[in-house]
């Protein structure tokens, strides 16, 4: 009996150890200067990005994306030398790092002010289903400055998207969103995507066994960090010309194979 008890204890310890979350990838932003080019690339231009945005996204420009004292700062700037009056940065891991399922968390402090539109989000690596929204989109965090403190987590698919009035998502009020760092995260499995802020679950999107039109989230996705200016949503109530520059600050990005235990 004693041997059996010891065996069960060992098996229990092994199971607990085997189920601990494994860190797959991270960026702690501990090197001053531009974001690590082995991890991050840039989207560039000012064509509106499908949302009538005003900013010109620059590439490898320290004014718009830089690391200082362990924090990534993505900054939107008023600049009349550009046709729409603003520059910013949109950095991504496309072609460098991507994941199929996992726990993705980003510790960030958000900008404030009417016309700001920061986002932490994911798009697929490949065009498997014919473009957006059929390929899928996961918005880990979105915030529009005219509605301060209300943070949104959403998904977009062919069946569920705002263009046809069927978008799936939820929102939660985050105190001190612009003065303190908060952890924005998803736990993405074959069955569902759970959305968290500071480890509080506030939205679940379930895989109900439908085809790709409902669940295109069985493929690899990359991560995107940006701050837009204005746009169809961010600029719904105009853009305050007096608030710039504004920035989203990111302390770290971490990707695990599963949600870590507290």
TrEMBL record:
Residues 29-261 form the GH16 domain. The keyword Cytoplasm does not apply. GO terms for molecular function: hydrolase activity, hydrolyzing O-glycosyl compounds. SUPFAM superfamilies: Concanavalin A-like lectins/glucanases. InterPro entries: Beta-glucanase-like (IPR000757), ConA-like_dom_sf (IPR013320), Glycosyl_Hydrlase_16 (IPR050546). GO terms for biological process: carbohydrate metabolic process. It holds the Pfam family Glyco_hydro_16. Keywords: Signal. Residues 1-18 form the signal peptide. Belongs to the glycosyl hydrolase 16 family. This is Licheninase. It comes from Algoriphagus machipongonensis. The lineage of its organism: Bacteria, Pseudomonadati, Bacteroidota, Cytophagia, Cytophagales.
């Amino acid at each position: 009996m004693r041997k059996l008890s010891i065996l069960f204890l060992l098996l229990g310890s092994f199971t607990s150890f085997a189920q601990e979350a494994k860190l797959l990838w991270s960026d702690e932003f501990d090197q001053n200067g531009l974001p690590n080019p082995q991890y991050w690339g840039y989207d560039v231009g000012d064509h509106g990005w499908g949302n009538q945005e005003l900013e010109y996204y620059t590439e490898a420009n320290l004014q718009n994306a830089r690391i200082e004292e362990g924090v990534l700062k993505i900054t939107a700037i008023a600049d009349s030398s550009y046709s729409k009056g603003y520059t910013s940065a949109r950095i991504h891991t496309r072609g460098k790092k991507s994941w199929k399922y996992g726990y993705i968390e980003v510790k960030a402090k958000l900008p404030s002010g009417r016309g700001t539109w920061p986002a932490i989000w994911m798009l697929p690596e490949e065009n498997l289903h014919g473009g957006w929204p059929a390929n899928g989109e996961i918005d880990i965090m979105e915030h529009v400055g005219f509605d301060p403190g209300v943070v949104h987590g959403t998904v977009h698919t062919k069946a569920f998207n705002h263009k046809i009035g069927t978008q799936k998502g939820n929102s939660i009020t985050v105190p001190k969103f612009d003065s303190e760092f908060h952890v924005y995260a998803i736990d993405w499995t074959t069955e569902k995507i759970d959305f968290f802020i500071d480890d509080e679950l506030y939205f679940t999107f379930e895989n109900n066994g439908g085809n790709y039109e409902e669940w295109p989230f069985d493929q690899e996705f990359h991560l995107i960090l940006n701050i837009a200016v204005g746009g169809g949503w961010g600029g719904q109530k105009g853009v305050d010309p007096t608030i710039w520059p504004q920035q989203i600050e990111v302390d770290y990005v971490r990707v695990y194979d599963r949600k870590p235990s507290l």
